[in-house]
Amino acid sequence: MDCHAGRGAKPYEGKLAYYFRAGYHENMPNTDDYIGVVISDVARLLRTEFDRRVRKLGITRSQWLVLTRLHRNPGASHSELADMLEVEKATVGRMVDRLEANGWVERRSEPDDRRVKRVYLTAEAERIHKRIWRVAEVTVDVTSATRQMRLWMRSASAVR
Fold it and tell me: How many domains is the chain partitioned into structurally?
């Protein structure tokens, strides 16, 4: 049976659809049984949901990542931020430029080495970080409640 059916053909449904679209075969192990894959999927889903919620605050994923790292590590240099975010220094420079233009961070020269710029959150960014943190807590709480509801529904249907 051709898993890549043409127009008008009914595509595979349910759990199998993922495997057939991805080109998996029945002899391959079910990756859903591996904890690493499950953890990765859950992290991706939480990030996606969190991104959707903070977008309403007018902030992007890269911006909230920088704000969060600077909240934990005030005065980090561009090099240190690049290491924390696993990106290039030039990328961090552009991110900090945008955050600075928004009034969320400020650069300060290192007293011993004026080539090194330290980045600090402004008071406005600290307020935004508090709002982001509340969104994160709600996202995790909602996700946890949803999971518990699904477990309850499964157990209730198994009793029948």
Answer: 1
Residue pointed to by tokens 């946890």: 144
Domain range for residue 143?
A: 54-159
Residues 153, 147: contact at Cβ < 8 Å?
no
Q: Indicate the pTM of the whole model.
A: 0.63
Q: Which tens digits make up the pLDDT trace of 34-74?
A: 778 778 888 888 888 888 888 888 888 889 899 999 999 99
Which two tokens mark 5? 């059916």
Closest CA to 19 of 35, 36, 6, 37: 37
What CATH number corresponds to the domain at position 94?
1.10.10.10
Task: Name the token pair of 109.
Answer: 């020269």
